[in-house]
Structure formats: C-alpha cells, structure tokens
Design a protein that fits this description.
This protein is an alpha/beta fold. It folds into two domains: about 140 residues, Rossmann fold (3-Layer(aba) Sandwich); about 110 residues, Beta Barrel (OB fold (Dihydrolipoamide Acetyltransferase, E2P)). Helices cover about 30% and strands about 30% of the residues. It has eight helices and 17 strands. Helix 5 packs antiparallel against helix 6. The longest helix has 21 residues. The two termini are about 30 Å apart. About 5% of the residues have low confidence.
C-alpha cells in the first residue's frame, strides 16, 4: 500500500510519517511534496497511490488549486492547522479532515475509513463506486452515547457523560462512573476506542481508556511519561505511555 504526503512544514511531515509507521508499519510513504506546482507535476508523471495526505496551505497557495490542474481519483485525507476549509475539503475526494497537530486516534479512525473504501473498491473496481463510498463515509460519525449494563437481575442505562473511565483487568473490561460505580461490560478497549467520541475519551495505555472529566491532576513522570490522578481513584498507578504522551497533551489542550 502506497501513500503520498503533500506538506510544506517539515516537522509536520516528519510527525505524520512517524505516526503512520506506528499505525501501519507496512505502509510505503512517499514525499513530502511542498508546493502546488510540484504536486501537479508529480501527478502528471503518472505515478499512482492508494491514499494522499494533503495539507491545505502549501508554500505557493491553497492546495485546492491542484484539483483545477490535474485529475485525482485517489482518496484524500486533508491536514491543516485551521478548520475553516472543512466544507470545501469535503466537496473533493476527501475521506477525512485532520487538524494539526494530528491526533493519533483521529489518524487511526481516518485510516479505518480508508480501509473500508479500499475493501469496497477492490470488489467493485470502478471509480463511480469509489466516489460513492467516499460520499457515504463523509456522513458524520455516530458515537455511542450510552451503555446498558447489568446490575443483578436488572439492566441500567449509563450515559457516556456519567463515565469516568474504562479499565482492563484479567482479560475483562470494567466501566467506572464518576460516582465510583463499577460495572463489567462486554467490550474490549479496542472496541471502545472506535465507538466513543475521541474528543471526550482517550486511550492512555493498554489498560485505561479515560474521559476528560476523570482527570484530576497530571504529573510529569520519568522517561517523558505522565502520571495521572483520576477521580474517582482507581487504586492503580495510572501512567500515560510514552508513545501517547504527545497526543494526550494535545487532547487535554483541546487540539
């Protein structure tokens, strides 16, 4: 699988490559190309890709101009530091729109969308079907807003607004509310990452997926990690893994 990065900020391009290699080690990444002119010449050369990451503001103007000069029938994931171009981006072959600094969970979600397109396209084999799938996937993502949990012989609905965190222990997952009530649920943390709004929930390590409202304090920890105080207390040491520290800081900062 081949991807092209069109990006004029060197640090942003290097970060994107790093995240992609972490999420998709087998992905062959080309670029970055930093100008509209360079991108047009590159596409005119006949080289093909499965996916393109396209920064909106390039060194010589808005990247939307590329589409006026050359036909691109490849799924696009737009990247930008601003959200004012979202509507324009979705008028093109866009499957997602990522704000910088790119959050690894949102990038993972975007790649999952791409895989759905790739699988569908490989079965149908026509551009019309490809573009139809892109339009379908441009519909707003629906995240879970409640869980139905067991308490004895009864079922209780728990709103996601009531949830402090989820944690895994001995191969089972528990839901803990802000009122410190704990329920066993039939989901893996991987399932929950996909079903919950990443604006409000973050997977900090292999054991914990937390809500923003559960974070009481954040402490610097050794080896560039972070240690969290949660409410309610979990009784466990809660550490943000080194690989997720940067994205956690961005998440906490609303980026």
């Amino acid at each position: 699988m081949k991807a092209l990065i069109i990006e004029d900020e060197d640090l942003a391009a290097k970060r994107l490559v790093k995240l992609l290699k972490e999420l998709e080690p087998e992905l062959e990444v080309s670029g970055p190309i930093d100008t509209i002119e360079g991108a047009v010449k590159h596409f005119q050369s006949g080289v093909s890709y499965d996916l393109v990451f396209l920064d909106i503001q390039l060194a010589d103007g808005k990247s939307f101009l590329i589409f006026d000069k050359v036909k691109i029938d490849v799924p696009i994931i737009f990247t930008t530091a601003y959200d004012e171009f979202a509507i324009k981006a979705f008028e093109l072959n866009s499957i997602d729109y990522l704000l910088k600094p790119i959050n690894i969970q949102k990038l993972r979600n975007a790649l999952d969308k791409f895989k759905k397109i790739r699988d569908f396209y490989s079965k149908s084999g026509t551009n019309n079907d490809l573009l139809e799938m892109i339009r379908t996937l441009q519909m707003p993502t629906k995240y879970k807003t409640r869980f139905l949990v067991n308490k004895g012989d009864t079922l209780i609905p728990i709103s996601t607004q009531e949830i402090a965190y989820f944690f895994a222990e001995d191969k089972v997952v528990f839901l803990v509310t802000l009122e410190n009530k704990k329920y066993l649920i039939n989901y893996t943390l991987e399932d929950l990452e996909q079903k919950l709004d990443p604006t409000h929930f973050f997977r900090i390590n292999r054991q914990f997926l937390i809500s923003m409202s559960a974070v009481s304090k954040v402490h610097n920890y050794f080896n560039y990690k972070l240690k969290l105080d949660l409410r309610p207390e979990s009784g466990l040491e809660v550490i943000v893994s080194k690989a997720r520290t940067s994205d956690f800081r961005s998440w906490m900062n609303g980026e």
